[in-house]
Write a structure and sequence with these properties.
This is Putative membrane protein. Keywords: Membrane, Transmembrane, Transmembrane helix. By secondary structure, this protein is an all-alpha fold. The chain has one domain. It is 79% helix and 0% strand. The longest helix has 33 residues. The model has no long low-confidence stretch (mean pLDDT 85).
Length: 182
């Protein structure tokens, strides 16, 4: 597996790695911090709408790992999913008020001349993602405050990913239906 792939897998596996680090061996936090720093470094010359955000989140992940090494501060590590949801909400939400919504920007990469109906649809999809990030971030915050590692890992390591997949699949199905009707 190439290095960028490894750092991407580590990012997706974050909840499981956090659980392992906090449950079994806090020394895993240093390699996790290094993986985040490596991810940020690898992203520095890549282009894309999520690149700057991904770099900042990698640095935030590294910082949370390092601060969690301090005595009595291991709980800081749990806040990474909250930071991710907040950052994505800001990215998607701000695009609704400043020009072209993010989902429309992504759609125009494949189809530069979107019809008005598709423009309205992409705005709605952007709004739905904003609602998702609010809901997911709220539940992630609750799991941090509750302090139950099993609950935190279940939500942030499984259920939220399943919901993301369902939302993506549902949006894809709706988009196909709309395209056939056009």
């Amino acid at each position: 597996m190439r290095l960028p792939g490894l750092t991407g897998v580590a990012t997706l596996a974050w909840p499981l790695l956090v659980w392992l680090a906090l449950r079994h061996h806090v020394a895993l936090l240093l390699p996790l911090a290094l993986l985040f720093l490596l991810r940020g470094w690898l992203l520095r010359h890549q282009a894309g709408p999520f690149n700057a955000l991904s770099q900042r989140l990698a640095l935030a992940g590294a910082a949370l790992c390092l601060f969690s090494l301090l005595p009595g501060q291991q709980h800081l590590l749990l806040w990474y999913p909250v930071a991710v949801n907040g950052a994505l909400l800001l990215l998607f939400g701000s695009s609704l008020f400043s020009g072209i919504p993010l989902v429309e920007q992504l759609a125009r990469l494949r189809e530069p001349d979107l019809p008005p109906r598709a423009v309205r649809y992409t705005r709605r999809v952007t709004q739905i993602w904003c609602l998702f990030f609010i809901l997911n971030g709220t539940i992630a915050t609750f799991t941090c405050l509750h302090g139950d590692m099993a609950l935190w890992t279940l939500w942030n390591g499984l259920l939220s990913y399943l919901l993301i997949g369902l939302l993506m699949a549902g949006e894809w199905l709706v988009r196909q239906r709309i395209r056939r009707a056009a």
